[in-house]
Design a protein that fits this description.
141 residues, alpha/beta, 5 strands, 5-stranded mixed beta sheet
């Protein structure tokens, strides 16, 4: 009984010291739900989904946009462009023909920009297997 009580105390202290970890887990759950709903209705079998916000960590976003330009023709990658202030700016940076591809989603309703989570300002790579999320990685500089 003492061991069980000690274990609960240790877990409680760790949760207070590292609240960010539970926050990330909640963010991952929300992104997972949204991605799996999106992929369920998509005929393609993607290996990864890259979510690129239009505002946030500017260096990170620049790297992600370069990745987009270099890999947009790869049909194993789904790109989601969210939180874009200007459609015109998006076209200038990423080129209209790229934005019209099947594997590109322009998230005009900002469904993939999760307000309330600091992770929203970073590009995210979601790894997929059989239309299920297996790993989420935040791209930060």
């Amino acid at each position: 009984m003492k061991t069980k009580r000690l274990l609960f105390i240790v877990i409680g202290v760790l949760m207070m010291l590292f609240p960010h970890c539970t926050h990330i887990t909640t963010y991952n759950r929300e992104i997972t739900k949204k991605i799996e709903v999106l992929l369920k209705n998509d005929a393609w079998n993607y290996e990864s989904v890259v979510i690129i916000p239009g505002s946030g960590c500017t260096g990170c976003i620049s790297v992600a946009e370069k990745f987009f330009l270099d890999n947009v023709s790869n049909e194993k990658i789904k790109f989601i462009l969210t939180k874009n202030a200007s459609q015109k700016g998006l076209v200038l940076r990423l080129h209209e023909e790229n934005l019209k591809r099947e594997n590109v989603l322009i998230d005009v309703d900002n469904n993939f920009y999760l307000i309330g989570y600091e992770e929203k300002i970073y590009p995210v790579i979601v790894f997929i297997e059989k239309k299920k999320v297996i790993q989420i990685r935040r791209l930060s500089s």
